[in-house]
UniProtKB/TrEMBL annotation:
<dbReference type="InterPro" id="IPR026888">
    <property type="entry name" value="AcetylCoA_hyd_C"/>
</dbReference>
<protein>
    <submittedName>
        <fullName>Acetyl-CoA hydrolase</fullName>
    </submittedName>
</protein>
<dbReference type="InterPro" id="IPR037171">
    <property type="entry name" value="NagB/RpiA_transferase-like"/>
</dbReference>
<dbReference type="Pfam" id="PF13336">
    <property type="entry name" value="AcetylCoA_hyd_C"/>
</dbReference>
<keyword id="KW-0378">Hydrolase</keyword>
<dbReference type="GO" id="GO:0016787">
    <property type="term" value="F:hydrolase activity"/>
</dbReference>
<dbReference type="InterPro" id="IPR046433">
    <property type="entry name" value="ActCoA_hydro"/>
</dbReference>
<dbReference type="InterPro" id="IPR038460">
    <property type="entry name" value="AcetylCoA_hyd_C_sf"/>
</dbReference>
<feature type="domain" description="Acetyl-CoA hydrolase/transferase C-terminal">
    <location>
        <begin position="435"/>
        <end position="599"/>
    </location>
</feature>
Length: 724
């Protein structure tokens, strides 16, 4: 391309899209944060008013703010939403219309990943869902014949020069353009929308203006970025994180997702590194580390540290980097990376490294123009070094012989190298980022080595080992631990992560299959699926470990490691009988007998099998007791990385949850109403919470009832907390 259109009005960009696409728009937009909401909303409004134009939108993870369902939820949520998302955040018009069942007939939305659980009851969204591995999206979008791509991008001016970055989403765009070009398909119109608050990322995410046909820089597109509210972590999740953290080997590779289980894992890794004695004591209280830890994991603090290679970059990686764990850097040079893997050299070069590098083939016999570029790029020679005849001229004025077969030449190079640090190492690679406001601040404030070590790149580079650099990828991702969550698992090792057995989609497969398959392909790699052993409380409690389920995301022939709050099940290479025993050992004891009976009927357990006594101890009560002392020492705060809610809001969340649970049955409603008759006057601390709900001075009858209900909820949840 030689010409880039610069536009300053959203309306002009919409007109340009319509002019390019005519009556049929097949539009691709990135998942998550990379969507240009303002432009998409303007295009949606225009097409909705123009029945002769068809719009088919292909995307994933259309982020939506929560919607209150009751008046009490509305009183709680509206102030929080305004504070957290800003009063300027524009919800996606197509997503709102789809949620409310009013998508115009000339607009269709196809997604390959849903915001978890948000569209279970939405028939049109369920029909239009496309079940795709993340790595296949570019291929399949090329088949569709996408004719326009829109993407939020970051901009930075330095020395009078404009720099552009795909920032949060370099994941699919470039793969899609390459895929279409390779098939000689018409290039789509590529529209980049500059967002001044989007954190800029360099390296592979940085891109030239010539990649775009249109660059839109309209102040109307500047709004608060969508930030994920930080979730609380329950005691069972902390226990799960502790078990999982012991499977991570120092100097290895880490992939994690988002959510409470990932937060628990990150918290446990930090505890292992910072307070190792407390870490080991707590793990022992939970029953100790699984025997597989001796061969694949560890309990000691991290010395070399970890390298992150994950489709999603989120808060957890920020905390690990700040905590001194995420620090192992990888280098896109096989010989250098091999020398690092074998411990021949470190990132800072020492006396004698020149001979070690020469002996292993990382240094050439003769430095030519190509090798000079490589050695400068890797940091073995300083920038500004030049090849002059049969010698290398350094920027200091010194000269080195280019013939490294001579020991004298190697000695001279060694003196120049000693003390230098390797360059262009990456401690974290990802395909898209999404997280909290704190996370976005961290990204904006990265500088020097911390900035240079972060790489956002194509999903095809992260989620698989194909593409021509398989050997280097495998070397960099040594001792990889791919942590993913699932909803349910069978005793034979199949996992359900994305949908229900009736076919309704909860979220999507995303990259989970890719990481599970990669774990089996990589020497030393392990796939670790995390799930709570049970869900619900009391009579409504259900096991998440089942004998059979009617939908499978990860088939049992790819079974590897499962982790629940009750421990680790190592299934790799095991027989069905061995897998059954391992999974039963980490099940909730309340559901063991039924699982054992089903396993016996299927012939996977011996008829005379009896449940070991230690399995009967897998109960929430035992977990609470095991974590009780550490929790009192402040090691397991429900919000280990801080909360987006105020103290009053946290109290109110518990109270509102209690009220919701108490009104599920007619009898519960009756007991609640009876309880409101004896609440009395609020204390000062309760008055602050009521004030937050605008119920401190109720005037109408309805408000007075809400006042008493919330007050009762506050008091009952305080009593429950004291009992615990």
């Amino acid at each position: 391309m030689t010409h880039v259109e610069r536009q300053a009005r959203v309306a002009d960009a919409v007109a340009r899209i319509l002019a390019h696409c005519g009556s049929t728009i097949r539009l691709a937009a990135p998942l998550g944060l990379g969507k240009p909401n303002v432009l998409l909303n303007a295009l949606f409004d225009t097409v909705a008013r123009t029945p002769s134009v068809q719009l088919h939108l292909f995307t994933a993870l259309s982020l939506m703010r929560p919607v209150p369902r009751t008046e009490l939820e509305q009183r709680f949520l509206e102030p929080f939403l305004a504070r957290h998302f800003g009063t300027d955040y524009p919800d996606l018009a197509y997503a709102v219309a789809r949620r409310e069942g009013r998508l115009p007939p000339n607009i269709q939305v196809s997604e390959f990943y849903f915001q978890s659980g948000s569209l279970l009851g939405n028939d049109s969204a369920q029909r239009d869902y496309a079940s795709l591995n993340y790595t296949h999206v570019a291929r399949d979008m090329a088949d569709v014949g996408i004719n326009v791509v829109v993407q939020l991008i970051a901009s930075r001016r330095e020395g009078g020069r404009e720099r552009l970055s795909l920032a949060s989403n370099p994941d699919v765009t470039l793969d899609l353009l390459d895929e279409m070009a390779s098939r000689a398909k018409p290039r789509p119109l590529v529209v980049g929308v500059i967002h001044p608050r989007l954190p800029f990322v360099g390296n592979e995410a940085e891109i030239g203006a010539e990649c775009f046909d249109v660059l839109l820089d309209d102040p109307a597109c500047d709004h608060t970025l969508f930030a994920i509210p930080r979730e609380p972590v329950a005691p069972a999740e902390f226990a799960l994180g502790l078990h999982a953290s012991a499977l991570v080997r120092d100097a290895g590779t880490l992939q994690i997702g988002i959510g409470a289980l990932s937060d628990a894992l990150v918290h446990a890794l930090l505890l292992r590194h910072r307070n190792n004695m407390a870490y080991r004591e707590t793990l022992d209280a939970l029953g100790g580390a699984h025997p597989v830890v001796q061969s694949i994991g560890g309990l000691d603090p991290f010395v070399t540290g970890l390298y992150g290679a994950s489709e999603m970059v989120m808060d957890g990686f920020m905390h690990l980097a700040k905590g001194g764990i995420l620090k192992r850097r990888v280098f896109d040079d096989f010989a250098i990376e091999q020398a690092l893997a074998e411990g021949l050299i470190g990132e800072q070069l020492r006396t004698g490294d020149v001979e070690r590098l020469y002996a292993c083939g990382a240094l050439p016999s003769l430095i030519d123009a190509r090798e000079l570029v490589r050695l400068v790029r890797c940091g073995l020679l300083p920038e500004g070094s030049r090849l002059e005849g049969d010698s290398v001229a350094l920027p200091t004025g010194a000269r080195l012989s280019a013939d490294l077969r001579e020991m004298v030449a190697r000695a001279a190079l060694g003196r120049s190298m000693t003390g230098r640090r390797l360059r262009e190492g990456r401690y974290l690679r990802g395909a898209f980022y999404l997280g909290s406001h704190e996370f976005y601040r961290w990204l904006r404030e990265l500088s020097a080595d911390a900035y240079d070590g972060l790489s956002m790149t194509r999903v095809s580079d992260i989620n698989q080992l194909y593409g021509g650099r398989e050997t280097l990828d495998a070397l960099q991702r040594r001792d990889a631990r791919f942590f993913n969550t699932c909803m349910m698992a069978t005793a034979l090792g199949a996992a359900t992560s994305d949908a229900l057995e009736d076919g309704r989609v909860v979220s999507g497969v995303g990259g989970q299959y890719n990481f599970v398959a990669m774990a089996h392909a990589l020497q030393g790699g392990r796939s670790i699926l995390m799930l709570r052993a049970s869900r619900g409380q009391g009579a409504s409690a259900r096991s998440n470990l089942l004998w059979h389920y009617g939908h499978t995301t990860i088939p049992r022939h790819l079974r590897d490691i499962f982790v629940t709050e009750y421990g680790v099940a190592d299934l790799r290479g095991k027989s069905d009988g061995e897998c059954t025993l391992a999974m039963l050992a980490i099940s909730d004891a309340r559901f063991l007998d039924d699982l054992v009976a089903q396993a016996r009927r299927a012939g996977k357990l011996a008829r005379d099998f009896t449940v070991p006594d230690r399995w009967r101890m897998n109960t929430p009560a035992r977990l609470a007791a095991a974590l009780g002392h550490p929790s009192r020492r402040g090691l397991f705060d429900a919000f280990p990385f801080g909360s987006d809610f105020t103290a009053e809001e946290l109290r109110l969340i518990k109270a509102l949850q209690w009220l919701k649970a108490s009104t599920l049955t007619p009898a519960g409603k009756a007991r609640l109403l009876w309880g409101t008759l004896t609440t009395g006057r609020p204390r000062d601390d309760e008055l602050a919470a009521l004030r937050r709900m605008q119920l401190d001075q109720p005037s109408r009858l309805r408000e007075k009832l809400f006042h008493r209900m919330v007050l009762l909820g506050l008091r009952r949840t305080v009593e429950t907390d004291r009992a615990l």
